[in-house]
Amino acid sequence: MTAFSPARTAATARRVLRQLRHDPRTIALLLIVPCLLLALLSWVFQDSPQVFDRIGAPLLGFFPFTVMFLVTSVATLRERSSGTLERLLSMPLGKLDLLLGYALAFGALAVVQAGIATGLAVGLLGLDIAGSVWALLLVAVLNAVLGTSIGLFTSAFARTEFQAVQFLPAVILPQLLLCGLFAPRGRMPSVLGAVSDVLPLSYAVDAMAQVAARTSLGGDFARDVAVIAGCIVAALALGAATLRRRTP
């Protein structure tokens, strides 16, 4: 097994960023689509700003999470099906180097994406939050990186780009329905509540809701952030364990 190398990880991240630089449609999907969705949401609730304030912060984390999941899973599968991963892994490049390189590259885009979306929501769309904008930005970035890491993991189970897209309703939509955005988690049937307790998006929504509603953030917020970070690490580790060189 090839030992982990920060230099090889950084080289992988630079390669991915160079490729993305020549793909304006992907960049537009990553940076513009979440902002357009937030603007549309604000427009829908222009006569009910209190509703936008209640759901705007959680969706500020959900939109980047979903977009990063979709782009990362498809991009990784494309490199595997084209034989690029096989050529890369035949070199002194470990699976963890590769996945961390992807995570760094898309994580850098996630910071830009979350910064633009947060600035738009708070500055232009008038999203009213009680907590710190920096705390809101932190959770938004973590959500985007979480979507990246889960996308890297799930791409190992798809053989075509169409199958990778099909993981969106299978992996993302159940989390959206059970995260507490539509109904309080404590009022769900016990089975659904138990499932909700192990889904990472539930903690992301809780963290966003706390930033929106509280001026001071305590142990619950720190716990939610720690759970999100732990899920990122777990997804990357599982992705390294299941990564295949080629699609059969």
TrEMBL record:
<feature type="transmembrane region" description="Helical">
    <location>
        <begin position="133"/>
        <end position="153"/>
    </location>
</feature>
<feature type="transmembrane region" description="Helical">
    <location>
        <begin position="225"/>
        <end position="243"/>
    </location>
</feature>
<feature type="domain" description="ABC transmembrane type-2">
    <location>
        <begin position="21"/>
        <end position="246"/>
    </location>
</feature>
<dbReference type="InterPro" id="IPR047817">
    <property type="entry name" value="ABC2_TM_bact-type"/>
</dbReference>
<feature type="transmembrane region" description="Helical">
    <location>
        <begin position="27"/>
        <end position="45"/>
    </location>
</feature>
<dbReference type="InterPro" id="IPR000412">
    <property type="entry name" value="ABC_2_transport"/>
</dbReference>
<dbReference type="GO" id="GO:0046677">
    <property type="term" value="P:response to antibiotic"/>
</dbReference>
<dbReference type="GO" id="GO:0140359">
    <property type="term" value="F:ABC-type transporter activity"/>
</dbReference>
<keyword id="KW-0812">Transmembrane</keyword>
<keyword id="KW-1003">Cell membrane</keyword>
<keyword id="KW-0813">Transport</keyword>
<feature type="transmembrane region" description="Helical">
    <location>
        <begin position="57"/>
        <end position="77"/>
    </location>
</feature>
<comment type="similarity">
    <text>Belongs to the ABC-2 integral membrane protein family.</text>
</comment>
<feature type="transmembrane region" description="Helical">
    <location>
        <begin position="98"/>
        <end position="127"/>
    </location>
</feature>
<keyword id="KW-1133">Transmembrane helix</keyword>
<keyword id="KW-0472">Membrane</keyword>
<dbReference type="GO" id="GO:0043190">
    <property type="term" value="C:ATP-binding cassette (ABC) transporter complex"/>
</dbReference>
<feature type="transmembrane region" description="Helical">
    <location>
        <begin position="165"/>
        <end position="183"/>
    </location>
</feature>
<keyword id="KW-0046">Antibiotic resistance</keyword>
<dbReference type="InterPro" id="IPR013525">
    <property type="entry name" value="ABC2_TM"/>
</dbReference>
<dbReference type="Pfam" id="PF01061">
    <property type="entry name" value="ABC2_membrane"/>
</dbReference>
<protein>
    <recommendedName>
        <fullName>Transport permease protein</fullName>
    </recommendedName>
</protein>
<dbReference type="InterPro" id="IPR051449">
    <property type="entry name" value="ABC-2_transporter_component"/>
</dbReference>
